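pasting for the record
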Amino acid sequence: MADYPEVPSQASTSDPQARPRRDMKEVGQEDRFSDSSGVLFEQAMAQTRMAVCLSDPHQPDQPIVFANRAFRRLTGYEEEEILGRNCRFLQGAKTDRDAVARVREAIENEDVLVIELLNYRKDGTPFWNALHLGPIYDSKGNLIYFFGSQWDVSDVRAARAEERHAREMARELSHRMKNMFAVISGIVNVVGRVRGIEDATGEINSRIHALGRAYETTLDEASVGVIELGPAVKAILEPYAVGERLKFLGNGVQVPFSAMSLIGLVLHELAGNATRFGAWAEEGDGQVKLDWQRHGGQVVLTWIESGGPTPGGPPEETGPGAVIMDRLVAAARGTIEREWKSGGLHAVLTVPIEGEQA
């Protein structure tokens, strides 16, 4: 087994958990095989679903001397085509030479190695093999075999590749969206100056920036379809820099990526109102508690202000921010309830996510 096709994995001889080497020479008596238990061991190896082979390091070119049924099924070779050959016959055109060298080094050092290798079946089809390689000693500590177990991890590697690709695409999308928000904000500023409505454009841009923060924080997680709500909420509200005057009470709820634009805009409106009129107004020393919980097919965010100016009830006129917020919530089939209490505004946003992965 001096040569073996491979591709590097995370585990190797540098992993303390994968280096029993010298300890393997000191196996306790209760773990040793007598002649009868050796027969049972051989039968167990023959019948296990894990592909297993043994090679003899004392014969020229270290040939395989045992290969179980699972090994034959994995590789497509018959027993007579396996026994007496070095494991390199499983290598192929795209087998990583550096990985082969790592396997050879582990054998020379009588070490344990866990590594992913690109192997080839008898019919020429490639597969990724998670190889666990290690020495076997007799009762006197003499090396007698090398043990190798194989596991086809092709599907696992394909899933990893898909996830990496999705994350790369998410990062690219994040970059493009930042540029898009910057362009939109610039257009709004130019139009505002030309028409002399700088105050209105500032208000519009604040909403654009709120959307940008919501998406920027969550795009890296969008590849898996759901995002952690907590980090996203904190990023959306971070620009308000209110420190200890904002308490987060939510747990580890996950929400669909598509829900973040609505949540981001609503939180921006609530925070803006708290800064201008409520708990975070300059003349007050109030606090806001923000909670979020998953309830069945819904996520519920609760915004509670306390210690701010006592509101006189609902505003006589509904501002544009509230109108935008109400329309977006209704379009998403959600609800938002507001109650003006003595300590400040209490608001509950319900966002339906039933049928979404969470």
